Amino acid sequence: MNEHLFSKEEIAQMKRGMNLSFAIGLGMLVMKMTAYFLTGSSAILSDAAESVVHVLAVGFATWSLGISLAPPDKEHPYGHAKVSYFSAGFEGAMIALAAFYIIYEATIDIVHGPKLENLGLGTLITLLTILINGALGMYLLKIGRKTGAIILEANGKHVLTDVWTSSGAVLGLLLAIFTGWLYWDPILAIILALNILGTSYRLIRKGVQGLMDQVDPKVAARLALVLERECEARRIQYHELRCRNLGNAWWIDLHLLFPRGTTIERAHEIASQVEETLMTSLPGRVSVNTHMEPIEGHDLVHRQPATRFDPDPEL
């Protein structure tokens, strides 16, 4: 995510979103711990543990956001936005830790028997955290999708995961209140822990895919369709198509092949037209780099042995 790709307003909006997430996360942690001490609910304790993880993850994500906004430099010509995928993976791992802790605490309650009190007040406090986190999560997702900031989108999904955890805690308390069977509390805690493990898996998978530059089949098919149409209309060819997601933008490389007699001026003009079309073919920001080659004799030239690189024998 490079600063030159965003307006000052967008950058300020992203930073404001992360700071707001961190501040509200701390507030939610205080509220949930208060609800736990009032009720003794394992589901609420698990919910509070998830908030501890959330605060740690947001702190890491805020640090990552600062790095991702740094412009490209000599050592990082593509910029620093790939840290977004690392941040998403880290947040997914933190969610997984919270889920395992929830299962551990709930299992202990099932074995030894749950002890609950002040359920009404604890339920009201938890309901309030659901409303606040729901609004925050939707806000972060909106900014993340608008700017293409994976860090904010991952954080928004984490906040909404927290909403599901809190909802499960409330459901467990309500069932315990109306049925008198206190085991609803730890049982619901385990069910929701398994659910948020799914969110954790998706975040980690997305982080790994981005860091490894895994091809997105839908994106590849879309680019191929556009290029085939554009090249056929201009009587040229293409190959060596490559596309990578930088974390906030798409980077496309390809070779365009022109017939004999095409002037460099005309080839450049056509290449620019194809580039402009590709830049509007994908959502968000797109950078396109084309290499121009002749159609005639192309294969013969590329069959010649490439310049060999001999590493330093001292290394």
Question: What's the SSE blueprint?
Answer:
Elements: H1 8-39, H2 42-68, H3 83-112, H4 119-147, H5 150-179, H6 184-211, H7 217-234, E1 237-245, E2 249-258, H8 264-279, E3 285-294, H9 298-303
Parallel strand pairs: 2-3
Antiparallel strand pairs: 1-2
Helix pairs in contact: 1-2, 1-4, 2-3, 2-5, 2-6, 3-5, 3-6, 4-5, 5-6, 7-8
SSE ordering: HHHHHHHEEHEH
Q: Count the E strands.
A: 3
Q: CATH topology of the largest domain, which one?
A: Alpha-lytic protease prodomain-like
So, the CATH homologous superfamily of the largest domain?
A: Cation efflux protein transmembrane domain
Q: Helical stretch count?
A: 9
Overall description:
69% of the residues lie in helices and 9% in strands. With 315 residues, the chain is mostly helical. It folds into 2 domains: 3-211, Cation efflux protein transmembrane domain (Alpha-lytic protease prodomain-like), CATH 1.20.1510.10; 217-303, Cation efflux protein, cytoplasmic domain (Alpha-Beta Plaits). A 3-stranded mixed β-sheet has the order 1-2-3, with helices on one face. It is elongated, with a radius of gyration of 26 Å. Residues 306-313 have low confidence and may be disordered.
Quick synopsis:
By secondary structure, this protein is mainly α. Helix content is 69%, strand content 9%.
Structure keywords:
Alpha-lytic protease prodomain-like; 3 strands; 315 residues; Alpha-Beta Plaits; disordered C terminus; mainly alpha; three-stranded mixed beta sheet; 2 domains; 9% strand
